[in-house]
């Protein structure tokens, strides 16, 4: 065959192959685009992403929102940390959200996002997350993707085992990682064994989401680490890991690793409710704050609470039991049937799985090893359901796929280990890059996991991403679990440290996503309903600016008569009633953040001008072709000047 001919044939083949691949390859996957009337094509929401993924921000204090399986980040929800982009903690309206018994605390360490549940299944109403440092629990509204409430947990020293839920979101639980004197007082740290205690708190969640500390259980001074609510047969119970049963108060890495076994505390919260109803609690004086955002008034409110009900195990038989668990356990995870309780013994050589039905039998038969402060310790052999051998080093957390398998993260050996419930054999394992902490299967801690993926949440990414100075990103890895073998699909960096994450099918949330705040429902005391109501009012050296925004101007946009040292409140109402048209607001030299005001909302920022002059202000969010025109001036005159307040737009 002549070479030219051969070449022509090969090229022909290549062209046909390319055509086939391009054409049919694309046809095979679904059409990703939709068109509009102008003939433009765009990708419809939900085309790429089947799930929302909510990751904890760890030391960033926030929640990251991603799509799965794309791994694209959509949003950072400010929760425990100030966020100047959204004026969270900077605007007058949001500042009360950070109130605590220690004053204004504008940061926390957020570890565990947890979706609200109905009947043991994530329902998409809210996502809760714990503040680990200054003990708090936040509730985020998933119609607005905005923090709606933050409640402080009294008598706690590190709210780590939180905010896990009971099956119908009756309660959010909160256990103290660090034991402390309760009530707190000035004692020698070396008096730990005598003075330090732990608490396990149950926070009642009302139908509208409002939280209230219903009761606390005073427990021995161990470190209560993680938790999960029971489900199905174990509904009515909640489980909490503990470590440092040695009760060390220094060099815990050695001193708290002595005992062969620590405990899972099993709490019968239905029984606790009975004791509370019978009045068998002690009332402790304390102080803690509940802060909530009123969506109609567009502002947050704080209330201080002064007492809490405390149950003492010695006085409440049947309230709480200890399950011996090797060795400094971290995670405690209940399988979808509610029968098995898997413990991540971070120094243990096996994954221990307790059996709820055996636990109930052991309680009935009083198979106790001993009793600690009125808490019976059940015999290990009596409660153990199975042990997973060869789980990798440093097992931490387990999620379930609903098909009879558990997936455990092993931090030290940096892998996910898949094992079969019942036979306890390891059936697959996959490396994680690197140092996996939590992991997440969509719905993987609920009664009906959606399965499909497991997401590894990794602490360290050395050699995996472009270097960014001394600190490298943390990451999430998406792994397909639909077949027998786990398959790595992709990984992506995360904002902050993704301790834990929760995922939920996109269509559950998409349809409820709020688009605007109806302006007629705006009850902000300084809000205005129309541009004609815009005005500037002086009250002594306080000035209230009632300002409106609509594409593409402010009213008023010229203000005179402000004086050095005045306290100027800008109350800005975005009059837009269109989805995704926030307007921003920023003033030169304003010693604070911008405002980013959602359609129909009102927000306030305070400014004390220090120097005379003319100050431009402008919209920070590109809102129309004439966004650059959306600006104005404020004239600031010296203290004592007699320039009168005048204002206007277009005059
Ligand atoms: Cu990172 Cu749940 Cu705070 Cu484990 S915790 S990893
Ligand atoms: Cu309004 Cu840009």
Distance N terminus to C terminus?
Answer: 86 Å
Low-confidence stretches: 15-29
Radius of gyration: 28 Å
Helix count from the secondary structure assignment: 7
Amount of beta strand = over 45%
Estimated structural class? mainly beta
What is the general shape? globular
> In percent, how helical is the residue content?
under 10%
- Give the number of DSSP strands: 48
Largest sheet: 11 strands, mixed
- Arithmetic mean pLDDT: 94
Bound molecules: sulfanyl-(tricuprio-$l^{4}-sulfanyl)copper, dinuclear copper ion
What do these coordinates show?
The protein is mainly beta. The strands form 11 sheets. Strands 8, 9, 10, 11, 12, 13, 14, 15, 16, 20 and 21 form an 11-stranded mixed beta sheet that branches. It is globular, with a radius of gyration of 28 Å. Residues 15-29 have low confidence and may be disordered.
Summarize the structure in short.
The protein is mainly beta. Residues 15-29 have low confidence and may be disordered. Dinuclear copper ion binds at residues 552, 583, 619, 621-623, 627, 630.
Topology:
Blueprint: H1 3-28, E1 33-35, E2 41-43, E3 51-56, E4 63-68, E5 73-77, E6 99-100, E7 103-104, E8 114-118, E9 121-131, E10 136-141, E11 146-152, E12 157-161, E13 171-178, E14 180-181, H2 192-195, E15 196-205, E16 211-220, E17 223-229, E18 237-243, H3 252-255, E19 261-268, H4 269-277, E20 282-294, E21 299-311, E22 320-326, E23 329-334, E24 340-345, E25 350-355, H5 356-364, E26 368-372, E27 375-378, H6 380-383, E28 384-389, E29 395-400, E30 405-410, E31 415-420, E32 426-431, E33 436-440, E34 453-458, E35 474-480, E36 487-494, E37 501-505, H7 506-510, E38 535-539, E39 542-550, E40 553-555, E41 558-563, E42 567-574, E43 583-587, E44 595-597, E45 602-607, E46 613-618, E47 631-637, E48 646-648
Parallel strand pairs: 16-21, 39-42, 41-47
Antiparallel strand pairs: 1-2, 3-4, 3-37, 4-5, 6-7, 8-9, 9-10, 10-11, 11-20, 12-13, 13-15, 14-15, 15-16, 17-18, 18-19, 19-22, 20-21, 23-24, 24-25, 25-28, 26-27, 29-30, 30-31, 31-32, 33-34, 34-35, 35-36, 38-39, 39-40, 41-48, 42-45, 43-44, 43-46, 46-47
Sulfanyl-(tricuprio-$l^{4}-sulfanyl)copper is lined by residues 111-112, 160, 226, 330, 396-397, 437-438, 499-500.
């Amino acid at each position: 065959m002549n070479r030219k001919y051969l070449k022509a044939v090969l090229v022909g083949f290549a062209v046909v192959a390319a055509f086939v691949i391009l054409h049919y390859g694309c046809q095979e996957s679904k059409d990703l685009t939709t068109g509009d009337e102008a003939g433009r094509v765009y990708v419809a929401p939900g085309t790429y992403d089947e799930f929302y993924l909510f990751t904890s921000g760890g030391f960033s204090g926030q929640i990251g929102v991603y799509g799965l399986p794309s791994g694209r980040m959509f949003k950072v929800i400010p929760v425990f940390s100030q966020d100047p982009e959204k004026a969270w903690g900077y605007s007058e309206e949001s500042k009360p959200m950070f109130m605590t018994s220690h004053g204004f605390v504008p940061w926390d360490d957020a570890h565990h996002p947890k979706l609200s549940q109905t009947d043991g299944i994530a329902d998409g109403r809210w996502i809760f997350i714990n503040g680990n440092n200054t003990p708090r629990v936040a509730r985020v509204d998933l119609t607005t993707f905005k923090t709606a409430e933050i409640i402080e947990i009294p008598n706690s020293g590190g709210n780590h085992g939180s905010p896990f839920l009971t099956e119908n979101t009756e309660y959010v639980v909160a256990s103290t990682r660090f034991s402390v004197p309760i009530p707190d007082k000035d004692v020698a740290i070396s008096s730990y064994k005598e003075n330090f205690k732990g608490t396990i708190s149950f926070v009642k969640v009302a139908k509208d989401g409002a939280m209230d500390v219903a009761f606390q259980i005073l427990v021995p001074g161990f470190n209560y680490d993680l938790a999960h609510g029971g489900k199905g047969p174990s509904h009515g119970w909640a489980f909490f890991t503990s470590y440092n049963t040695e009760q060390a108060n220094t060099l815990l890495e050695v001193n708290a690793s002595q005992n062969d076994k620590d405990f899972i505390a099993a709490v019968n919260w239905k029984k606790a409710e009975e004791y509370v109803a019978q009045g068998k609690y002690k009332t402790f004086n304390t102080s803690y704050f509940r802060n909530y955002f009123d969506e109609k008034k567009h502002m947050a409110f704080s209330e201080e609470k002064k007492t809490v009900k405390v149950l003492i195990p010695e006085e409440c038989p049947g309230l709480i039991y200890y399950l011996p668990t090797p060795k400094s356990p971290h995670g405690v995870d209940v399988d979808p049937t509610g029968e098995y309780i898997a413990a991540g013994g971070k120094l243990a050589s096996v994954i221990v799985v307790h059996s709820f039905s055996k636990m109930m039998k052991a309680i009935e038969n009083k198979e106790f090893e001993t009793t600690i402060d009125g808490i019976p310790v059940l015999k290990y052999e009596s409660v153990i359901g199975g042990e997973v051998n060869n789980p990798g080093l440093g097992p931490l957390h387990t999620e379930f796929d609903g098909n009879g398998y558990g997936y455990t993260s092993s931090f030290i050996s940096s892998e996910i280990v898949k094992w079969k419930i019942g036979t306890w054999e390891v059936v697959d394992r996959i490396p994680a890059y690197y140092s996996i902490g939590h992991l997440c299967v969509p719905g993987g801690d609920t009664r009906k996991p959606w399965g499909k993926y497991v997401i590894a949440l990794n602490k360290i990414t050395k050699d995996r991403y472009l270097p960014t100075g001394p600190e490298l990103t943390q990451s999430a890895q998406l792994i397909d679990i639909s077949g027998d073998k786990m398959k790595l699909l992709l990984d992506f960096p995360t904002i902050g440290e993704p301790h834990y994450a929760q995922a939920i099918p996109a269509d559950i949330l998409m349809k409820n996503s709020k688009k605007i705040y109806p302006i007629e429902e705006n009850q902000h005391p300084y809000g205005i309903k129309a541009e004609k109501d815009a005005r500037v009012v002086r009250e002594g050296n306080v000035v209230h600016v009632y300002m409106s925004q609509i594409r593409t101007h402010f009213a008023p946009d010229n203000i005179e008569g402000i004086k050095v040292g005045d306290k100027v409140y800008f109350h800005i109402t975005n009059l837009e009633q269109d989805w995704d048209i926030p307007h921003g607001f920023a003033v030169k030299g304003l010693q604070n953040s911008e405002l980013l005001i959602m359609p129909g909302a009102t927000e306030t920022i305070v400014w004390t001008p220090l120097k005379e002059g003319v100050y431009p202000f402008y919209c920070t969010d590109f809102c129309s072709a004439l966004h650059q025109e959306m600006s104005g001036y404020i004239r600031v005159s010296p203290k004592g000047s007699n320039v009168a307040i005048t204002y206007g737009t277009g005059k």
